[in-house]
Amino acid sequence: MSHRSNPNPEWSVAMDWYERLANYFPEHEMKHPEQLRELLQHHEAYRKMETQDYVVTYAEFPDFVFIDYLLVNPRTRGKGVGSRLLNHFKARGKTLIVEVEPPDAEDEDTVKRVQFYERNGFVRAERITYTRSDDDGTPYTMDIYYWSPDEVSEQAVLRNMKTICREIHNFRAMKYYGRLLADPEEVFTWESPT
C-alpha cells in the first residue's frame, strides 16, 4: 500500500502547490521540491497550471505531452474538473502519457485513478514494464497509460517514455539524489507478444 504523508489531505490556501502534491502522492513518486522548481525555471518543456480546483505539472514535447502530476481539489472531485483538464490537453492533438500506480485493492485511490484515466480514453501500455527504485533501493512498478488522437504504437510510447526519463525524471538528478532516478536503459522491459 502506498504511504502518503497525509491520507486525508486538506486543500489549504496556506499550502503551496508542492505541499498539495506531496500530501497526496506517495513519497517515492514525488520529485525533490527544488528539482521541480528548477524544471519549471530551466526546462523549456516543463510547465505548471494551478487554480483553486487543480494543480498539474507537465512537459510538452513536439509530439507528446507527459502529465507528471495531476491533482484535483478534494472538494471538487467527481465534478468533471479532471476530465475537462484532460480534454484541454487532448485538444493539443498530441499523444498524452501518464505514469499510474498499479491498482491496489487496499488503496482505493489507486483504483479510482486508473478508472479515471480509463474513463477518459487512456489505455494501459501492456507491453511496457516500468520498474524504478526508491531512495532505499526498494523497487516499485508504475503502469504507463496513454491517449492519442491517432493510432500510436506502444514502441512509440516507449521511445517517449525514455525521453521523459532522460529529460524530466533525470533533470539535475545527480544534484538532488546523487543518482539517476530513471535510467531509460534499466527501468523498462519490453514484453514481446506471445
UniProtKB/TrEMBL annotation:
Gene3D superfamilies per UniProt: 3.40.630.30
Taxonomy, superkingdom: Bacteria
One of the Pfam families matching this protein, by short name: Acetyltransf_7
Domain N-acetyltransferase as annotated: residue spans: 1-145
InterPro entries per record: Acyl_CoA_acyltransferase, GNAT_dom
Protein name per the record: GNAT superfamily N-acetyltransferase
Taxonomic source organism: Alicyclobacillus cycloheptanicus
Lineage: Bacteria, Bacillati, Bacillota, Bacilli, Bacillales
